[in-house]
Amino acid sequence: MDSPSLPPLGTPARLAVGIVSAGRVGVALGVALERVGHVVGAATARSEASRDRLARHLPGARIASPAEVARSSELIVLAVPDSALSDVIRELVDSGAVHSGHIVVHTAGAFGADVLRPIHSLGAVVAAIHPAMTFAGTPDDAEHFDGCGWGVTAPDEIGQAVGESLVLETGGRPVRIEEAQRPLYHAALAHGSNHLVTLIADALLALEAVIGLPSVEGAPGQDAHGAGSELYSPRGHSDRPLESQEESLDPDALASRLLGPLVRVSLENALASGGAFLTGPVMRG
């Protein structure tokens, strides 16, 4: 395959795209790139889940080895787990499948562009482009790129410009992250995302336990009928329709209804003003 020539900066070229591998991020990014005119022609898909995902969302892409993906592509997306990235890069370099004229990007959060140095030394344009987003493997995953922030790191301005252009094409917002700051960048995102999920899960479990407790006649907070609240009153009288009463008996749904609005507003306040909106015992000491 002849070396593809790079387009002038700022000109969105239609590229033949190859994806290594067809995980949640890789397929979602492939779908987003196809929506703006690029063509995903090949991808690696070792697991049955990856093969099914590829067939559903990128049916025009054939399954191939990493080297075959590279040889048939102009833009190579390395969307493998962080722990596998170095081995995949070494495999591509040893195969002779990457060369000057290729664009090679990876989506790993913890690594910058240094890990791509063996490919960059061959004359390829390289960049690390990491979406600050979580993906569930659902059909609407590609929609999450709209307005999504991306950490972009490259060894030179050409790679930076190409990486940022790809991000902009997906509807994302590129943010330049220096190589030395990449580990802290990734740790901050993991801390905010993973700990938030754990915190909410714990709070929901606690609320479900409270809501699921049987009503006690005359307990504090109950009225004369033994009703604990308007939301949950399995023994009390309610004028609400039967469907609404049945829904109110589900502790899971009620816990989400109680916690959801509070968490959403708290998150928006925290993003806007940091810890200035802390309330309750945390502020009182």
Automatic annotation (TrEMBL):
Pfam families from the UniProt entry: DUF2520, Rossmann-like
Residue segments, region Disordered: 218-250
Superkingdom as given in the UniProt entry: Bacteria
SUPFAM superfamilies, sorted: NAD(P)-binding Rossmann-fold domains
InterPro entries: DUF2520, NAD(P)-bd_dom_sf, OxRdtase/DH_put_Rossmann_dom, TM1727-like_C_sf
Stretches assigned to the Putative oxidoreductase/dehydrogenase Rossmann-like domain: 11-131
Domain DUF2520: 150-285
Family matches, as Gene3D superfamilies: NAD(P)-binding Rossmann-like Domain, ProC-like, C-terminal domain
Protein name as annotated: DUF2520 domain-containing protein
Organism in which the protein naturally occurs: Dietzia timorensis
Source lineage: Bacteria, Bacillati, Actinomycetota, Actinomycetes, Mycobacteriales
